[in-house]
Amino acid sequence: MELGGPPPLPGSPVAPPGYRPPYVHPPAETPAETTTRLRPVRTRHPFRTAAAAVCVVLGLGLIGGAATGSWLISDSSADPAAHSAYTVGRTAWHSIPVDTLFPRTLKGDGAGPGGADRIWTRLAVAPDSGCTPALDPLLLKTLRPVGCTRLLRATYTDATSSSVTTVGMVFTEGDTAAMRALATRFTDQHLDIRTDLMPRAYAVPSSPAAGFGDKQRASWTVHVLTEVPVVMFAVSGFADGRTVTDPQPAAKAMAVTATTAAAQAGLGHEAKGLADRVERGLRADVTDLTEKPE
What we know:
alpha+beta, seven-stranded mixed beta sheet
């Protein structure tokens, strides 16, 4: 017998064979409450509403001001860093003509011993390079904290062609703090008078400086600038190529009581005089480039 429901009552009509009553769906389930009951909203206080409005206004004003300021400083003409002496000075080696950095002729009024005038003629300008081939290893190590972007050198001779001097500029990567720290170190440790920190000379073939090498260096000067990221130097020697066994820093060779061959020949004055005038020219050029357009 097929299961499916209670037996029929006596006297009730009998369903024909194979008949199935219609399916009746059960009542739908009551959905469970899934939302969180909302908290009652408190009545807003007029003072709080006004304060919130003021905050919104101030916030929008600050955002607008910041956006405007950002737009203004994005303009290179309004950005002081774009015209700073350090920004301009670091790239001066390729933005200033070589004849401006190293003039073909330089006058040194009162630059010689006893205030005598000097005139120097440029023999040649060395190809711009890095610092490694142009500086002694120890001097290169000393300058390492400020880095080396480029090194430029030129060799001059005096009016009598009896002396030769190489003057150079090391363009560094250092910022103001780094350059000041290096300058302080040179001063405190007297690094500018150490013979093992002498700059190298630049020999010029077929000229009075043809034999100007390491052994011919007689006097020198090194000056760390702090207004621009540059280290100035100059090294002088005799044009006849003689070997110098007692080189003397320019500061000492310029003393009245100095008796070394370099001092007697005025080679300290040659190195200091040339370095000073090339440095002055560089400062003037950088100042011109940093002036903002009106």
